[in-house]
Design brief:
The protein has 14 helices and no strands. With 307 residues, it is an all-alpha fold.
């Protein structure tokens, strides 16, 4: 019998805690790096090259699985394209568009509601029953999002004077919730790394037409220089590959329920590092929004019985 968390030696507990913190920081890195790159790389170009480079990084390790499961991949390719469009397209390009108009702190707090949206959409689709505790959590989280969108100003909310960037981020959070539900419901039968590589490739394919439009029609071609390479390399390595690997290892080490709490810690990283690195001001509506969003997410996703 494996020892539980309470009987693990101190070095194991410390290493698990360090892994958890690293995983949550890497999850937060996309908002921080995307905000830092907003003035350097056009949003669709950043998303396209992010996943192109991420696919190139994992390909040597994923290639055996891609070859072994090529028939299954061919069968489910339409589903993979939809998943790639949601996770790499909308959650990629839309978020980077939003980060050009809002802060990393806002992004982290709004994105933290994705688990709540998963519960809500599951209930609407009849996949999950929502109890009183979950309903209270959903209400709390969405009130918190309203506070952030309106900057704690009810008159602004009533007049629909909402930052456009925050709305772009909100669409990304909804798309991530739909992606997660589809991934869970479809049970595609691919190993984790193989699925990651296939999704990345599908995302690149979906993003290619939008990237061409941005470059040729909208007149916003990406400048291929050292700044662009650094921005793309950072989001590909830290926000994509290392984030994925760290989160998967966290799940293996402390289990999916505890690992999922990394999503709750992510906004704290974006707020702290956004202030220190990007010079973002921490406003009263951020604190009020966080005081509503984070408990709401926890309530909506707390397991029915403690492990």
């Amino acid at each position: 019998m494996e020892p539980n968390a309470g009987t693990q030696p101190a070095p194991v507990q410390w290493s698990a805690a360090a892994l958890f913190l690293a995983s949550s920081a890497l999850l937060a890195s996309n908002a921080l790096l995307g905000r830092a790159a907003a003035e350097t790389v056009p949003p669709v170009a950043l998303a396209f090259w992010r996943w192109s480079v991420a696919f190139a990084i994992v390909l040597p390790f994923a290639l055996p699985g891609l070859i072994a499961h090529r028939r299954r991949i061919a069968e489910i390719w339409p589903k993979l394209l939809l998943l790639g469009g949601l996770a790499m397209g909308i959650c990629g390009a839309n978020v980077y568009i939003g980060l050009g108009l809002t802060t990393a702190t806002n992004t982290g707090l709004i994105y933290a509601t994705s688990p709540v949206m998963i519960v809500l959409i599951s209930a609407v689709m009849g996949l999950e029953r929502v109890g009183a505790r979950q309903a209270a959590g959903i209400v709390l989280a969405f009130v918190g999002v309203g506070v952030i969108l309106a900057r704690a100003d009810l008159a602004r909310l009533a007049a629909l004077e909402i930052n456009e960037g925050d709305l772009w981020i909100l669409t990304g959070a909804v798309a991530w919730a739909v992606f997660t539900l589809l991934l869970r419901h479809w049970r595609l039968g691919l190993p984790t790394l193989t699925l990651f590589a296939a999704n990345a490739a599908a995302g690149v394919i979906v993003l290619a037409p939008a990237y061409a439009w941005e470059s040729l029609v909208a007149g916003r071609p990406a400048a291929f220089n050292a700044d662009t390479a650094a921005a793309v390399g950072a989001v590909a390595l830290f926000a994509s590959v290392l984030s994925f690997l760290a989160y998967q290892q966290t799940i293996k080490t402390i289990g999916p329920v505890r690992a999922g709490a990394a999503l709750y810690v992510m906004p704290l990283w974006t707020a702290a590092l956004g202030a220190l690195w990007l010079g973002e001001a921490l406003r009263d509506y951020h604190l009020l929004g966080a005081a509503l969003v984070l408990p709401g997410v926890a309530l909506a996703n707390w397991p029915a019985k403690s492990a």
